[in-house]
């Protein structure tokens, strides 16, 4: 029944998408050709020609939607993900359309086809498709909350994983998952979690499936019971019921894992680090170089003034160099404007700077409080030691201490450290919780995108450079 509904839903989505594409194209023709917003240069081709082009365009776009996953079940897919796929599909469609247009323009066939109309079509198709998908999602969510389009599931294994799965289903009733019960060998029948009860042993699974209408099986075994997995999978496949496996690795893998195929051998990476991808790393490095050069040009006059004030404030060098730990645990010398009197190396390593620290000079208090002392790190970025955005680097002695005290601390060194970061814009700067800072750093590492970097840079400027925890 669920499969039939999903098939019908996919057919409805395809039909709606085709209608939306036709509507978007018609609106684009109306605003670019029929009653052009920009009257000059809107083309001379007939309506029949333009709408003949639409005939192959609609199936081509629907094929792109299918390739990029827009017809997969929407139960647990976030709207943000769906929007990204819509933009991605239409962007590829625009590039392909423009390529074909320019390829055949020399032959004279598309010589007068309006490129402006393609731009209108791109905007309309994204906007209207997004509205359509959102409305369909809201409708299905409402139906599932009322008990329609439910998926009946049996869980195999009573474990922390099953508890978490139940919690998520209870929290998101719009997903439409109704848990029939749990089968488990280690827990007595009748035991329950949030009104979901153990209804039998694993050996009873085949009989339960034959006597009840079950749409899915979710294997939620604890790690200690994985030796039973082959037998359970065999029973599930014999029943013909769709089966999903939810691995119990929450204490080992704390993020969304990435699976890959090595000539037929499935591999699961312990942690998703987008910046290990060569293209992502190159893109970020290019942005870092451009951003550092722009930063040096913008803040160059201020840096010259600060350099003079530091030199006049106390004897010693203008730039303070300190060893920090960076990418792949490699030490590097991080630059800052000197804000303290010159100290012996062993004294400087003893402790954090505290409020009212007598070592801090008069100008030092100002530049530390406003983070102006960090501006020389633009040179670290140009050298490749640092990035504009990333986890803040720590001193070697503290890294040695924290890696023993704080789980997963060293993961932050899988990417370049940054001048600013997700932890800093969330308030974890200076003398604040190290575990909380690490949680922010790990979240950033696992969810990196160019958009996230831009957001962090914007928040750094928006929230101001003044740091109440900098002494």
Ordered list of secondary-structure elements with their pairings:
Layout: H1 2-34, H2 47-67, H3 79-105, H4 115-145, E1 151-156, H5 160-171, E2 177-183, E3 192-193, E4 196-200, H6 205-211, E5 216-219, H7 229-239, E6 242-245, E7 258-262, E8 265-269, H8 278-313, E9 319-325, E10 331-337, H9 345-348, H10 362-369, H11 377-383, E11 387-389, E12 394-395, H12 396-405, E13 418-420, H13 422-425, H14 434-446, H15 450-462
Parallel strand pairs: 1-2, 1-5, 2-4, 5-6, 11-13
Antiparallel strand pairs: 3-4, 7-8, 9-10, 9-12
Helix pairs in contact: 1-2, 1-4, 2-3, 3-4, 6-7, 8-10, 8-11
Strand proportion, as a percent range, falls in 5-15%
Radius of gyration from CA coordinates: 29 Å
> What assembly state would you assign to the polypeptide chains in this entry?
single chain
The residue fraction in helices comes out at 40-55%
Distance from first to last alpha carbon: 65 Å
The number of helical segments is: 15
Order of helices and strands: HHHHEHEEEHEHEEEHEEHHHEEHEHHH
Beta strands, count? 13
Number of domains: 3
Going across the biggest sheet, name each strand in turn: 3-4-2-1-5-6
Mass-distribution shape:
flat
The average pLDDT is: 82
Low-confidence stretches: none
Structural class: alpha/beta
Major β-sheet, in short?
A: 6 strands, mixed
Describe this structure in words.
- It is a single chain.
- The chain has about 475 residues and is α/β, with parallel strands linked by helices.
- It has 3 domains: about 1-145, no CATH class; about 150-250, NAD(P)-binding Rossmann-like Domain (Rossmann fold, 3-Layer(aba) Sandwich), CATH 3.40.50.720; about 275-460, no CATH class.
- About 50% of the residues lie in helices and about 15% in strands.
- It contains 15 helices and 13 strands.
- It has helices spanning about 1-35, 45-65, 80-105, 115-145, 160-170, 205-210, 230-240, 280-315, 345-350, 360-370, 375-385, 395-405, 420-425, 435-445, 450-460, and strands spanning about 150-155, 175-185, 190-195, 195-200, 215-220, 240-245, 260, 265-270, 320-325, 330-335, 385-390, 395, 420.
- A 6-stranded mixed beta sheet has the order 3-4-2-1-5-6.
- The protein is flat.
- The relative contact order is 0.06.
């Amino acid at each position: 029944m669920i499969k039939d509904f999903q098939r019908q839903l996919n057919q409805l989505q395809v039909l709606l998408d085709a209608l939306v594409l036709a509507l978007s194209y018609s609106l684009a023709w109306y605003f670019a050709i029929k009653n052009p917003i920009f009257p000059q240069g809107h083309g001379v081709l007939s309506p029949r020609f333009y709408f003949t082009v639409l005939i192959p365009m609609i199936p081509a776009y629907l094929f792109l939607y299918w390739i990029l996953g827009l017809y997969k079940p929407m139960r647990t897919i976030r709207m943000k993900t769906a929007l990204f796929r819509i933009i991605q599909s239409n962007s590829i469609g625009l590039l392909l359309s423009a390529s074909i247009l320019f390829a055949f323009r020399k032959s004279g066939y598309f010589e007068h086809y309006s490129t402006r109309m393609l731009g209108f079509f791109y905007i309309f198709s994204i906007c209207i498709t997004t509205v359509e998908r959102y409305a369909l999602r809201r409708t299905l969510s409402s139906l599932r909350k009322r008990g329609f389009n439910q998926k009946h599931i049996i869980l195999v294994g009573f474990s922390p994983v099953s508890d978490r799965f139940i919690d998520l289903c209870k929290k998101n009733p719009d997903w439409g998952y109704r848990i029939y019960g749990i089968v488990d060998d280690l827990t007595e029948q009748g035991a329950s979690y949030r009104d979901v009860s153990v209804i039998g042993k694993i050996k009873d699974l085949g009989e339960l499936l034959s006597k009840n209408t079950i749409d899915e099986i979710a294997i939620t075994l604890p790690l200690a019971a994985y030796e039973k997995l082959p037998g359970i999978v065999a029973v599930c496949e014999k029943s013909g019921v769709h089966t999903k496996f939810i691995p119990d690795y929450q204490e080992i893998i704390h993020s969304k894992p990435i699976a890959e195929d090595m000539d037929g051998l499935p591999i699961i990476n312990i942690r998703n680090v987008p910046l290990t991808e060569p293209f992502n790393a190159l893109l970020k490095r290019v942005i870092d170089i451009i951003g550092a050069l722009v930063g040096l040009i913008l803040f160059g006059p201020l840096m010259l003034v600060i350099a003079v004030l530091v030199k006049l404030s106390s004897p010693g060098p203008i730039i303070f160099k300190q060893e920090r730990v960076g990418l792949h645990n490699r030490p590097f010398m991080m630059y800052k404007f000197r804000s303290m009197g010159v100290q012996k190396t062993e004294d400087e390593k003893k402790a954090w700077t505290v409020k009212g620290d007598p070592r801090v000079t008069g100008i030092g208090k100002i530049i530390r409080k406003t983070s102006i002392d960090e501006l020389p790190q633009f040179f670290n970025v140009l050298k490749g030691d640092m990035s504009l955005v990333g986890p803040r680097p720590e001193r070697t002695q503290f890294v040695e201490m924290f890696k023993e005290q704080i789980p997963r601390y060293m993961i932050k060194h899988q990417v370049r450290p940054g001048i600013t970061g997700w932890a800093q814009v969330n308030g974890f700067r200076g003398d604040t919780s190290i575990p909380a800072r690490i949680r922010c750093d790990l979240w950033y590492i696992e969810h990196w995108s160019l958009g996230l970097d831009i957001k962090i840079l914007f928040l750094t400027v928006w929230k101001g450079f003044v740091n109440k925890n900098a002494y």
